[in-house]
């Protein structure tokens, strides 16, 4: 568990139980269960095609699972069964936000505008959904000011304040990734799900991402991430869950998982009898240290 995190507690935030997802004849996820704790960064890893994105899509309402239960436990004591909610309510009611493998920003809008659009729901609610409300209600004026403050806050955090008025599409790739995360944070999530946030980043951008993700966690939003970059996973995760062929093969601290023979075998693609050789190979590569 990463140290220096005052907000870390041990209560369950997300509980996935016996999740299965079938596409025609393919069992992409098969009786998969895990928990993500409040105040932690949980990473979901596994070889290509293991089912990671499918799990994300079930949690965030893009797919309705064939079987299983996904429960979100909010700070206020409310519980939501995510598999029963439409996707827009998963963000709004259950407070689960996500980003995608492919960046999905409004590239013609400015950086600031992207963050304001993300707060559209709160602004419309404050307007009372009327034109008069938009023009005159003090509640709307207050909400608009709060939206700008929140956007500014996340622009600072994501180190994007200097680019606030530039079109989002003009930002370098790593900055666009941070903007996507800032935009998701403007919806006020308790759980932020990130699908391969480090994909395509250079080492400097990767470091900036790690800093941003840690600060999000330390301020009280828990994270669930899919990531192929093991340096990111091992560096920032508190808890790692490993999938292979739609089933869980390991679950624990980064140290536990990276030394688990089943995980080593899954990543090296070896059969059981070749496992000893695989472990020796990994030890040789890491100089015998883990
Ligand atoms: N909409 C779909 N229709 C049919 N099959 C699908 C669909 N989505 C995913 N699959 C299949 O389910 C399996 C798991 O895919 P998924 O994308 O979840 O894996 P992944 O672990 O995220 O892979 P990667 O690391 O390559 O992104 C794969 O065999 C994939 O082809």
Automatic annotation (TrEMBL):
GO terms for biological process: D-alanine transmembrane transport; L-alanine transport; L-isoleucine import across plasma membrane; L-valine import across plasma membrane. Keywords: Amino-acid transport, ATP-binding, Nucleotide-binding, Transport. InterPro entries: AAA+_ATPase (IPR003593), ABC_AA/LPS_Transport (IPR051120), ABC_transporter-like_ATP-bd (IPR003439), BCA_ABC_TP_C (IPR032823), P-loop_NTPase (IPR027417). GO terms for cellular component: plasma membrane. The keyword GTP-binding does not apply. Residues 14-270 form the ABC transporter domain. It holds the Pfam family BCA_ABC_TP_C. It comes from the Bacteria. PANTHER family: CONSERVED COMPONENT OF ABC TRANSPORTER FOR NATURAL AMINO ACIDS-RELATED, HIGH-AFFINITY BRANCHED-CHAIN AMINO ACID TRANSPORT ATP-BINDING PROTEIN LIVG. It comes from Ciceribacter naphthalenivorans. Gene3D superfamilies: P-loop containing nucleotide triphosphate hydrolases (3.40.50.300). One of its GO terms (molecular function) is ATP hydrolysis activity. This is ABC transporter ATP-binding protein. CDD domains: ABC_Mj1267_LivG_branched. Belongs to the ABC transporter superfamily.
């Amino acid at each position: 568990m990463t140290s220096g995190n005052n907000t870390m507690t041990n209560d369950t935030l997300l509980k996935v139980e016996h999740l299965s997802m079938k596409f025609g004849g393919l069992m992409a996820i098969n009786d998969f269960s895990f928990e993500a704790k409040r105040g932690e960064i949980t990473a979901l890893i596994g070889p290509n095609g293991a089912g990671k994105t499918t799990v994300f899509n079930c949690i965030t309402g893009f797919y309705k699972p064939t079987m299983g239960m996904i429960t979100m436990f909010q700070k206020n004591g409310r519980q939501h069964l995510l598999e029963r909610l439409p996707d827009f309510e998963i963000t709004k009611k259950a407070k689960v936000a996500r980003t995608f493998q492919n960046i999905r920003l409004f590239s013609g809008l400015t950086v600031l505008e992207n963050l304001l659009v993300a707060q559209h729901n709160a602004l419309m609610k404050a307007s009372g959904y009327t034109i008069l409300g938009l023009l005159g209600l003090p509640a709307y004026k207050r909400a608009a000011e709060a939206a700008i403050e929140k956007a500014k806050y996340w622009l600072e955090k994501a180190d994007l304040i200097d680019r606030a008025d530039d079109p989002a599409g003009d930002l370098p790739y790593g900055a666009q990734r941070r903007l996507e995360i800032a935009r998701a944070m403007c919806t006020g999530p308790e759980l932020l799900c990130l699908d391969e946030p480090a994909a395509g980043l250079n080492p400097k951008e990767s470091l900036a991402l790690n800093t941003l993700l840690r600060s999000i966690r330390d301020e009280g939003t828990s994270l669930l991430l899919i990531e192929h970059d093991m340096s990111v996973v091992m560096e920032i995760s508190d808890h790692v869950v490993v999938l292979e062929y739609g089933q869980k093969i390991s679950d624990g601290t980064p140290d536990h998982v990276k030394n688990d023979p089943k995980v080593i075998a899954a990543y090296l693609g070896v059969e059981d009898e070749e496992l000893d050789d695989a472990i020796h190979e990994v030890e040789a590569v890491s100089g015998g240290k883990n």
